[in-house]
Structures
1.
Amino acid sequence: MKLIEFGLWVFMLAAFLGFELIRRVSPLLHTPLMSLTNAISAISVVGAILITGEQDAPLLSRVLGFIAVFAAITNLVSGYLITDRIIKMFKKREPEKK
Amino acid sequence: MDAVLPALYILAAAGFILALKWMSSPGTARRGVMAGEAGMLLAIIGTLLRYEVVNYEWIVIAFSLGSAVGVPLAYLTPMTAVPQRTAFSHAFGAIASALIGTAEYYRHTPQGFTMGALMVETLLGFLTFTASLMAFGKLQELLPTRPITYRGQNIVNLSLLGLAVVIGVALVISPEQTWMFSIFMTLSLVFGLLLIIPIGGADMPTVIALLNSYAGRVADVTTKLHPRRTGNRREP
């Protein structure tokens, strides 16, 4: 199977998977869901690391990669930490509910 | 080692899927965050261990600086300002993707399908960057929150986007024309800015959700590009 064809299969399945996963999220959790997906989108750090860490990368790509790693890590760290903070608040507020 | 690294990526993807699944109900939401964190950790470890990553100094510095900004951003933001923070952090994610695309373009000047994917990535990355900053400004009330409209706004915006797409297609056809790439970047940045101007502050959360999906698309393209590029080189 060609690589592009394979990629399109993954893309199609992932689209349905994503939709099914968030379809039943309770409206209460929409805010943390948004910051969680925001944090997960920082997966682009993978690409940034590859560019920055290359052996013979010219200065331009090294600098661009550096800024990209910095930005993605900021997004990642703050995204996960604040999601956690929001979730903790839910627990404190309604401990007797469960 | 080469067999272990793909496994780390697959586990990372599973972690993200579980993160979203567990986020559906308050009881399991905490576990969801942990699954997401574990997934991200695996992906980063898997990348750092790759044989083509040899220069760690810049990466370590960027990691420390990013955490130095990210941690206070997460803990000092008042709970009422969470939507703004998401928008702001989103701008960071978007610029990261856009810069990856830019670096990749100047370094390797890819051809054909890869170049097309790279153009989509860069366009969405840059426009999401300025659009997210605008959304942040409006939510934080640094900018006027009322919608700003003028005559012919849609025509201006659409022609800007149209022009960016035309240049993008031209670059896919002849990727060596580097001068067009700067124009393409500028157009994407300006389009993101103009896109948010006519939208009122109250609609911003919806806009952020939409921008979020753009960045997701971008991340998808980015990560698809890289393993393939390096993979091709490894196996002649």
2.
Amino acid sequence: MAVSASWVCDLDLRGVSEALAAGKVTSVEATEAYLDRIARHDGVLRAYITVMGDAARARARAADAEQSGGRRRGPLHGVPVALKDLIAVAGVRMTGGSEMLADHVPARDAFVTERLQAAGAVILGKLAMHEFAFGRPAVDGPFPTGRNPWDIRRAPAGSSSGSGVAAAAGLCAGALGSDTGGAIRGPAAMCGLVGHKPTYGLVSRAGVLAMDWSLDHVGPMTRSVWDSAVMLQAIAGHDPADPGSLAAPVPDYLAHLDDGARGLKLGLLRRFYVDWPGLDAEVRAAALDAFDVLTREGAALSDVDVPTLDLAPAIWTCFLAEMYEYHREMSRRAPEKYREGTRVRLYMGALVSAQDFLRAQRLRARFKREIDALLDTVDVLVFPGQAGPAQRFEDISSLEVMAPGGRYTSPWNLLGLPAVSVPAGFTRARLPVSIQIVGRRGDDATVLRVARAYERATDWHTRRPDPAGWRLA
Amino acid sequence: MAPDITVDFRARFDAELAAAGLAITGRDYDLLFAMWQEHLPQREALRAAVPAPEDEPWR
């Protein structure tokens, strides 16, 4: 029997929020609709590791009772969301996508969990991910990583794979992921979502399993830019428990979201990103169309470049040393509990010498100087959001330290700059493609503004994958 | 006679494993060796990029 509010699952987060605020649906009805959709489709899509049905229903009842009493906490009040399974929810197992942590139950909420709950959001569950945020896609084993809802023979990318699947397939109204080298933006690109990697330190990492302390970011993955802005607003802010947390005040991310692109200067990193021979032709064409849209919206576009960008992937790879350090004791104690692909990539981190790491840190500083100087001349950088569309599982290499497409995302983790992936069309095979927008440190608002200006002029974000395709042969 | 490049690579790889304190064998060893070889050009590019004296490490 169909759940009465199943229509909410086709809405973006804003639509769900407005329907709740207008009393068109209760949080209990919306929560039941998502839980029903999860029950019907997640056996194939495998977006969730843990579904928090009873806890979600209890939160939804509380949200409805508050609203009936005249109190709404804000736009996330009663909205069902879900979290990558490296973000702690007290009393709920947190696996990190690994057998190593299969029975681990955190005692405390992560900072971002507390913030979402304080905003009135309902947490539906914990989402699948690549093992420890650095493993490979998997369709089997105790924690499969999810199937792309646009084509279930293909991976959704990672490591926030379940977040991408759930948000795109309407198994939650919005999701949180984490991003160390592209793990929010990659699945957002492959699943037709907005994925925002905030400025480093804007969102607390407290209560979030680390991959690389220096490069980890937590951020939203949603169907629209407004949705991401609202989720970012809820989770941003200083947290003394995170040594990297910024103390600066958090701006209002909605205040100028619809100001448009007129008068803004966009710097296109053409040489490294558009002219790269490895870029898929359909992605290239869609991205160049997208930049034309932005110039028609009044932005000024110019080609820009920095030489150290070529070294960024190599610099990033040296930070595997941090990952190995985090896992050193666990991996020595029980290496067999890691998937093979994760384990071998961990060992690559052990092979980074101190000299190479220091060289990487010096070049990272040089890269920062070059990009900061560039961002004094333009407001944001733009480029295609991915090297190619979502890959079939059988085509994904197990030998790569970083997939070639990592060049589109990893440099911006090195610098901690805000970066958003925005849907920019589809290939002939109906697979999502994207553009990426990178801004000045702390200027997440302008990045989101440009993304919104593009989104408003297009309709890619309104497309939905067809559930009829969610059947295994 | 031309040097056996594979033997040279193996020796370098084994030396790095030893320095890192990694005692791995079998399939993990083979996969890691393949990954390490595939990554060598990137590493060489990093080492060849000499920073300016004023390029201090990131803080």
